[in-house]
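Two entries, shown back to back:
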Amino acid sequence: MSFLAGAAGVAGIITGIVLMRLGFLQQDEGADDPNPFARPWWYKVALGAAIGLAGATILGNAVTQP
């Protein structure tokens, strides 16, 4: 179970980084019209980890169900 939690954490961090690179969580600091969805980096990492944990939980439940 701890392996699943560790994998979910890694997948979540990767998901957060990918979302940042794709611009979904872009932070506009110097823009005249600041992005209302702009968040600090720790928020992006936490959101990515939550998405990864939820996905890993759903996937784990789907795989382990008889």
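entry 2 starts here
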Amino acid sequence: MNKKSSKCFWKQSILSAAIIAVTVTGTVSAASEVPEGGWYQPKYHSDLDYSEMKYTGYDRTKLDAAIREMDEICSLGKAGQEERVEELYETMVSEIDLFNTQNTLNDLIYYKDVHNEEAQEESQKLSQMGNELGDGVFIVLKKAIDSPYGPFLREKIGESGVEQLEDYKPMTEREFELRAQDLSLVQEYDQALMDSYTAEVNGEEWTTERYNEEAPEDPDENYDVYLALSKEKNSVIGEIYKEMVQVRNGIAQENGYDNYADYAYKEIYARDFTTEEIKQVYREVKDKIIPLYTEILAAQSTTDVNALIEAGEGKKGEEILDEVEPYIGKIHPELSEAYSYMRDHHLYDIEADDGKMGVGFTATLYSYGVPFIFNSPSGYYGDYSTVIHEFGHYNQMFHSLTPSIWELSRMDVFEIHSQGLEMLFYPYADDLFGEGGEAFRYETVSRMLYGIREGCLYDEFQNTVYKNPDMSVEEINRTFMEIAREYGYQYPYGADQAYAWIEVPHTFESLCTISAMQLRHFHPWTSGWNLWRTEKRPLINICTFLLWGEACLIRK
């Protein structure tokens, strides 16, 4: 996943993605034509190794001074200071890049050890500071584009940035307080997710550690212990979520919305469809994707999964990078250039570590002009997919020229780069995994269909909870189970609550994004799969269709 920090310091709008009512036919012929000057424009990349990029905190003095001076110049309304106005604007842009870089460096420390109290405290300070600075910058720039320097600044900022400024509403004191509370709850969740729990089963005490190390061999006993521990964990984290819902609905109400789901759809992701209209997609997925997913799983079961497991089991991060590297260059030489730079400068942390948060993401270190990949590996073949997936994000960020102040929260389309690259690896599965290659190809397809299912499930679940904020934890558990069954989940006879929904960090950190990240390729996937199944088109053509076809879904 692409990680745009959950501690984002101002409200952002994005270009909308057309998820429904779009049909893509054929491939994009321009995909094979190299633009004049190459695919990418020149960009600064620091030559520092990641080990030299230190978290030092952020000194706001320079940015505060720039905000004050810009406000003074615009208030006086005197002409003839274009050069100084440009300098102040560039200072704001570079300082915000520096702030976000330091914020990300601290995030990387925190995600490596979520119990690191110093990193937690720094995160809270940065969040509060970022909200204040971001609000101040947007307020003064909004004022500036309506001053005598407006025409000059509007041209420099660009149409997208100007739209963000014109739509911006200053944060209230109450919203500042609520956002601080929300961050504290996210950190509380992070820790609770990693904590150990205790439950008594048949008079015997079990802990999370004991279950992980010596789970009962008897299937029934194993399930009883797992369920008991899940209930304990759910009871703790469920209460955190209940409080989150209240806090986030408060943020929405400060901005004129009834609930946070409606607010997020419009104000954070600027979608051109509503939480009511997305229900059409839920129905389509239940009717069409779930049967297709079941069909793929059945076909996958006939492949040599054991060979795939053996080929990928226990591989270290560096081994995976070594094995993936030759095929990066075969896809395109410019991908190889970015990959080599990443390895030479150690811009990744993908080895196992007990203290790591169980997530994978890529984030930009703006001041250095480079991205960074973070992953907590699972120790099986899925780690290959994660490396390929995250490098898709890495390559896009590596070449992006957009400063962080104007970088839109394009969660709806970021996955084009990552999942598109996964599909372009399709022809090399046999080379990577030998007899397990066919299983890996099916795994790639089934995982993406699984992502569509999970995306809709969790989006529908979140929308339901935010619109019914007074539910108890038990009612939330029942709601999840009812919705999950509609997406093909099966539960033991007599079960009336589901407990494992708490294990999905997106529900707590970046709500209403999973459906976007997965559903944006709903039509290309169904079309691409039908091409493969019914016409036996070459797989590389299908991959190209999926990658470039998705680009046609973006409406500006």
